[in-house]
Amino acid sequence: MNEPSDSVLQHEPERARARLLSRLDAIAESLAGRDDALALLALGSVGREQARIDAYSDLDFFVLARPGAKHRLLSDLSWLDTACAVDWSYRNTPDGHKALMQDGVLCEFAVFELAELSRIAYAPGRFVWRRAEVDPALAQPARPLPQRADPDWLLGEALSNLIVGLARYARGERLAAMRMVQVHALDRLLELLEQRDARAAGARDPFNVDRRVEQRLPEIAPKLPHWAGGYRSTPQAALAVLAELEQQMSVPEAVGQRIRSLAHALEVAG
User: What are phi and psi of 241, to 5 degrees?
Assistant: First the structure.
């Protein structure tokens, strides 16, 4: 049977959901036929957050291996290819791969032995399949997820990022400046904002503050083009981020003046 096209899936999220979850079932069936695999743990939108699945979702999962079998499962992906032909894959970490399936489904996965899970931070998942010897409690991480940072630290980091970014812009390091202001400083601002809005924690990716921020903090969506205006807009972005920081917290006057002085000089210089 032909897989539904992306254009169809875009308008039919239930079909997208069915395709991804059935693909996980197929991967689980393939792994269950091997002696060296112990479990398939689904993460992210195919784990415990299935309401988020849409046509653009990918498959995030862990494969749990018997002792000594990890390398074999990483070096030979026939178990994945059995579920659906893999057009391309590469080893992106010592423990895992990214793989593109023939029908466009992107997989990001890692292989671990049971003893390794206690040393890994991961969001809670769900077991698609597991052998009886695998404790179901392992769907919950033993290692704590990243904790919320202190607001004063977030403010200090954001302000210093703005100063450093504007200095780099003045040197002609436009790409480095853009990233310092519109990525690093902005990330710290987003963390501050979500700490002040309980709604924002609902669908929070514990490793990426910018994920789904338009849905989690809809009131800031109109401001994002000013905070992240692009390669040529770093001085303007720095001023916009500073203005928001001043609304949220007490910014030392000397620091605010320094950032404005740098940004205005760069705007004049073009």
Answer: -65, -45
Cβ 187 vs Cβ 210: under 8 Å: yes
In this structure, are residues 234 and 177 in contact, taking their beta carbons and an 8 Å threshold? yes
The reply to whether 125 and 170 lie within a common domain is no
Q: Each residue's pLDDT tens digit in the chain (270 positions)?
A: 455 455 444 457 788 889 999 999 999 999 999 999 999 999 988 988 888 888 888 999 999 999 999 999 999 999 999 999 999 999 999 999 999 999 999 999 999 999 999 898 888 999 999 999 999 999 998 877 667 889 999 999 999 999 999 999 999 999 999 999 999 999 999 999 988 776 655 566 666 777 788 888 889 899 999 999 999 999 999 999 999 999 999 999 999 999 999 999 998 776
Look at the chain and report how many structural domains it folds into: 2
Domain closes at, from 109, 139, 169: 139
How far is 156 from 171, CA to CA, in rounded Å? 23
- 122 and 49 belong to one structural domain: yes
Same domain, 132 and 176: no
Residues 6+ away with beta carbon under 8 Å from 68: none
Among 87, 119, 139, give the residue marking a domain's end: 139
Determine the 3-state secondary structure of 39 from DSSP: strand
R_g of the chain, CA atoms, integer Å: 23
pTM confidence score: 0.78
- Residue keyed to tokens 């789904």: 212
Range of the domain at 221: 151-269
